[in-house]
Amino acid sequence: MIKSFRLQITAWYLLLFTVLFAAFSLFLYSVLARDLSRRLDQSLSSTARTAAGLFGDELTELKGDAPAAAAEAISELGLRGMSIAVFDGRKLLASSAPLENREWFDMAARAAGGAPEFHATIASYGQNGARVVTHPFHAGSGRFVLLAAEPLDSNMAELAMVRRVLYLAFPLVVLIAGVGGFLLATRSLAPVRSMADQARHITDKNLNTRLDIGAAHEELQVLADSFNELLSRLDQSFETMRRFVADASHELRTPLSVIRGEADVALARDRSPGEYRESLAIIQDEARRLSRLVEDLLNLARADSGHVSLRVEEFYLNDLLAECCRSLEAAAGARQIDLECRCPGDVAFRGDQELLRRLVLNLLDNAVRYTPAGGKILVSLEAATSELRILVSDTGIGIPPEAAPYIFGRFYRGDQARSRQNGGFGLGLSIVKWIAESHKGTVKVTSEPGKGSTFTVQLQR
Ligand code: ADP
């Protein structure tokens, strides 16, 4: 089995070419042989007609002496290698050469019996046989038969020469085709080789490199384009990963340095129990932030790996919303925000209850954080036959239109300073988006700066 693709293509090309060339040579040879034979027959017929005409004239001139007329016509004709014989019925009148062969008489008898003009090959004539025309005709008051024969020698010589040319040309042409095929295959596969060489040099450090195969054919261009698209996607994923790690490290650094700073200050000298308690409270607060951040990061990392399997169960979505509202009531109350949960009767849903609780809590948590005192938050549930919509509206600070496309991105914070103070990491909405999408749903926002925002989560039932 040939391993090299280039050699395989060459071999197939050569095989096909050889078969085609052999078939073409055979066809050409047989057409030539048939044409030579046809032309010989035509020339024989025309000679026979001329000879018959001459015979008729001589017969009139010699007053019906058929043998003499036949001999005269043959000698007048000037035969150039042909043989002619004239018969009266089965009786030979005259011939250009002695007739050694019975076949001449048989053919004359066939024509005398009424057969029209016909051609035949006599094998036992000269070296290569001869072609004969049997031409019956009327002259004077009688019916005669004229036979004209020409040896096949010159036809055979011509065909032998053609055969020789083909035998010589065949290996030469096959050799040229083989070399040509190999060069063609090498040329056609050159872009593939170039792609492989270029691809070999691509690592995670230069994923922005793209394969260049110049002005290649469409098929190879498609291959190169697909590979380049794959590189783009990989490049993007790597970039996202790099940014994610950088952002995560940045976010982790702040609470860690607060904890370390607070501990350093507390341990620098002896402190009163009140001061220790104060330091520990700060450390506890930052540690809580840290664990929330780590939990968020873990969730997103799991989402990216695609290994999260939903724990699907049936539950009442209205109950879940009511529970979420209850757990944020105190926080909302502390900020003098009116929190209302407007849910219809039992709305059963199949999904991951814990993830959906996380989704609603994230939206509610944002609503509480971004709504000033005296504001209002409304949580509602709309249920149709095929879909459900969870709406969380607030009368908060709203989102500027230029920020709207980015709020679902990781580590995006509308106002860095304020959000940091509020305790957000910019991960809440990306988790909301991931949970909605993992339930084959969507999340959208409509907002007006200064007036409030409405987040709508749409889920399939
Ligand atoms: P964060 O932890 O900063 O809240 P999120 O991913 O939850 O991160 O939200 C991203 C950004 O979207 C926030 O920093 C904020 O600017 C904006 N945002 C989210 N929810 C609201 C809301 N209800 N009202 C106004 N802005 C919001």
Low-confidence stretches: none
The count of helical stretches stands at: 10
Series of H and E elements: HHEEHEEEHHHEHEEHEEHHEE
Q: What spatial form do the alpha-carbon principal axes imply? A: rod-shaped
Average pLDDT, all residues = 90
3D architecture notes:
This protein is of the alpha+beta class. The protein is 57% helix and 18% strand. It contains ten helices and twelve strands. The chain has helices at residues 5-61, 66-77, 102-112, 153-200, 218-268, 273-305, 317-334, 353-369, 416-422, 428-438, and strands at 83-88, 91-95, 118-122, 130-139, 142-151, 312-316, 338-342, 348-352, 376-383, 387-394, 442-448, 452-460. The strands form three sheets. It has a five-stranded antiparallel beta sheet, sandwiched between helices. A five-stranded mixed beta sheet has the order 7-9-10-12-11, with helices on one face. The chain has a two-stranded antiparallel sheet with strand order 6-8. Helix 1 (5-61) packs across helix 2. It is rod-shaped. The two termini are 57 Å apart. The mean pLDDT is 90. Bound molecules: adenosine-5'-diphosphate. Adenosine-5'-diphosphate (ADP) binds at residues 366-367, 370, 394, 396-399, 407, 412-414, 419, 424-430, 453.
